[in-house]
Design brief:
Residues 28-57 are annotated as: Disordered. This is Excalibur calcium-binding domain-containing protein. InterPro entries: Excalibur_Ca-bd_domain. It holds the Pfam family Excalibur. Residues 58-93 form the Excalibur calcium-binding domain. There is one protein chain. With 98 residues, the chain is mostly helical. Helix content is 49%, strand content 0%. It has a domain at 54-98. The radius of gyration is 29 Å and the shape is rod-shaped. The protein has 3 helices and no strands. The protein has helices spanning 2-22, 27-43, 68-77.
């Protein structure tokens, strides 16, 4: 009985590989398949890139920031930051990382 189950499993796996990867594409079938794929992809909602979400967590210095956007967020929204020495609204002007 175990041999029969093993044989059936091998046959099923071979058939699956053949139908998905190795089977020559019939032009009629291939056209139908792309229509189905196009319909499915047109119904999908494309994700919009999310804006980075930063939170005030007590960091105050440019050396603690990971990006210019993060530094700008901290200067605009967080108290006691020390990243805009000349108070022109542009943080970390002398930081060569950004």
């Amino acid at each position: 009985m175990k041999k029969l189950l093993f044989f059936a499993l091998v046959i099923f796996a071979g058939w699956k590989i053949y139908t998905e990867k190795l089977q020559p594409q019939n032009p009629e079938f291939a056209g139908h398949r792309s229509e189905v794929t196009n319909q499915a992809s047109s119904n999908r909602v494309t994700p919009t890139p999310s804006k980075p979400s930063f939170t005030c967590d007590g960091r105050q210095h440019c050396s603690q920031m990971h990006s210019r956007a993060e530094a700008e967020f901290f200067v605009r929204n967080c108290p006691n930051t020390k990243m805009d020495g000349d108070r022109d609204g542009i943080p970390c002007e002398n930081d060569s990382r950004f």
